């Protein structure tokens, strides 16, 4: 999505919040609540939701009330708007360094053996205060490996490129020159990642055909990867020997990080691939004197060891992962019951640790990450208890 626009909207909203009474509930559409339950307002949200373009959507994370995100709430974004694809005329092309180039209709794909996977992902630009660029879906489709096997990758095929039907004019800089060329949306994977077990050519989500927003009629699903790699309106798979250096692969989606090694700062620029370990608190509600704190965990599929919640300056307390979200690549929802809350403003923060012992970083830990993508830092949130 265009981050500068979103950032501007949030800044505007942020100013409005400062002008509101501390008790003012932001003027968002409020989520459905159980009987006798009331929503505890976050005081760190902008007063008004950012204005979204017609082809974009943020998930209001306070409305998450089950493992799967319904299709009309699923967050959505893309760079060139929505291409229109005629499902009758549609053919998935497999080209380049293959023994047998393919052109597969939707019906043919649907006749192949299908598999299903639950996969929750976020846009690599997802971040505080809204955290609305994430969702979880159950995807059905054909294994990418199966289709690549049918085409037969040649030995020299080292890189597999995925092109969407969407396209736009791009300026390509070369030294002192600039060229404007029309290009398709493209992302690539090294061959060994493309022929792994998980990647899916998906034609349905949550048991229904993909919507236009989700890439109708076909998209790539790469469990564990950030949104950007999950190419919508997939139209061509191209095998080649050289690395693919298109804009969305090599330039627009990169993270610049500094790391102190032996007293010397080392800077690296890396492409956006698999998701960083992250958690955040999505909603707080009140039922009697119990406060239900609910949050979301996203990562690359590594099993989760623990997730904890801290209230103000108290100790880290264990939270519970919802068993309905235990699939490897599903997002995980967690719950923490907070009792004895006193009226006034409080800070709540969550922290997740994976089975390898990796701990979600703090904002301070990420101070040498210079670009805003991949912000997986712990997010201390403010709530007002009345
Ligand atoms: N063809 C195509 N696929 C795309 C994009 C795009 O611009 N064109 N945007 C990517 C980005 S940046 C994200 S975050 C996800 C969003 O997927 P969603 O709209 O289903 O949530 O789509 C990805 N796939
Ligand atoms: Mo994205």
Tell me the layout of helices and strands.
Elements: H1 3-19, E1 37-39, E2 91-96, E3 102-105, H2 106-111, E4 115-122, E5 134-143, H3 144-151, E6 159-174, E7 177-190, H4 191-194, E8 200-205, E9 208-209, E10 219-221, E11 234-240, H5 247-251, E12 254-261, E13 264-271, E14 278-287, E15 290-298, E16 304-311, E17 317-318, E18 320-321, E19 332-339, E20 344-354, E21 381-385
Parallel strand pairs: 2-11
Antiparallel strand pairs: 1-14, 2-3, 4-5, 5-8, 6-7, 6-11, 8-9, 8-10, 12-13, 14-15, 15-19, 16-17, 16-20, 18-19, 20-21
The protein binds ligand MTE and molybdenum atom.
Molybdenum atom (MO) binds next to loops.
General description of the model:
This protein is mainly β and about 375 residues long. The chain folds into two domains: about 10-40 and about 275-385, Immunoglobulin-like; about 75-250, Sulfite Oxidase, Chain A, domain 2 (Alpha-Beta Complex), CATH 3.90.420. The chain has helices at about 5-20, 105-110, 145-150, 190-195, 245-250; strands at about 35-40, 90-95, 100-105, 115-120, 135-145, 160-175, 175-190, 200-205, 210, 220, 235-240, 255-260, 265-270, 280-285, 290-300, 305-310, 315-320, 320, 330-340, 345-355, 380-385. A five-stranded antiparallel beta sheet has the order 1-14-15-19-18, with no helix packed on it. It binds ligand MTE and molybdenum atom. The ligand Nc1nc2c(c(=O)[nH]1)N[C@H]1C(S)=C(S)[C@@H](COP(=O)(O)O)O[C@H]1N2 binds near residues 78, 214 and 230. Molybdenum atom binds near residues 77 and 123.
């Amino acid at each position: 999505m265009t981050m500068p626009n979103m950032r501007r909207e949030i800044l505007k909203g942020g100013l409005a919040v400062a002008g509101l009474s501390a008790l003012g509930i932001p003027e968002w559409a409020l989520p459905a609540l159980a009987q006798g339950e009331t929503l505890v307002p976050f005081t760190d949200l902008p007063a008004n939701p950012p204005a979204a373009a017609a082809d974009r959507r943020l998930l209001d994370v306070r409305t998450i009330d089950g493992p799967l995100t319904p299709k009309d709430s699923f967050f959505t974004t893309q760079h060139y708007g929505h291409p229109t694809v005629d499902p009758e005329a549609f053919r998935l092309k497999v080209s380049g360094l293959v023994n047998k180039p393919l052109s597969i209709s939707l019906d043919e794909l649907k006749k192949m053996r299908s598999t299903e996977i639950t996969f929750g992902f976020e846009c690599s630009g997802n971040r505080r205060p809204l955290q609305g660029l994430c969702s979880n879906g159950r995807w059905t489709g054909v294994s990418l490996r199966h289709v690549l096997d049918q085409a037969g990758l040649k030995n020299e095929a080292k890189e597999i490129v995925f092109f969407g039907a969407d396209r736009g004019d791009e300026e390509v800089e070369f030294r002192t020159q600039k060229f404007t060329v029309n290009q398709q949306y493209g992302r690539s994977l090294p061959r060994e990642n493309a022929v792994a077990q998980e990647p899916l050519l998906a034609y349905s989500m949550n048991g229904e055909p993909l919507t236009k927003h989700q890439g109708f009629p076909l998209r790539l699903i790469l469990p564990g990867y950030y949104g950007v790699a999950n190419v919508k309106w997939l139209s061509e798979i191209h095998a080649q020997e050289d690395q693919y250096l298109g804009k969305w692969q090599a330039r627009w989606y990169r993270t610049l990080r500094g790391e102190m090694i032996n007293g010397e700062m080392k800077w690296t620029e890396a492409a956006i691939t698999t998701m960083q370990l992250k958690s955040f608190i999505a909603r707080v509600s009140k039922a009697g004197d119990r406060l239900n704190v609910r949050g979301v965990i996203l990562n690359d599929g590594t099993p989760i060891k623990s997730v904890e919640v801290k209230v103000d300056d108290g100790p880290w307390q264990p939270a519970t992962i919802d068993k309905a979200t235990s699939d490897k690549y599903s997002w995980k929802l967690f719950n923490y019951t907070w009792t004895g809350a006193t009226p006034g403003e409080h800070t709540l923060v969550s922290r997740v640790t994976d089975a390898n012992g990796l701990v979600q970083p703090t904002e301070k830990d990420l101070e040498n990450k210079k670009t805003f993508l991949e912000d997986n830092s712990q997010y201390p949130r403010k709530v007002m208890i009345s």
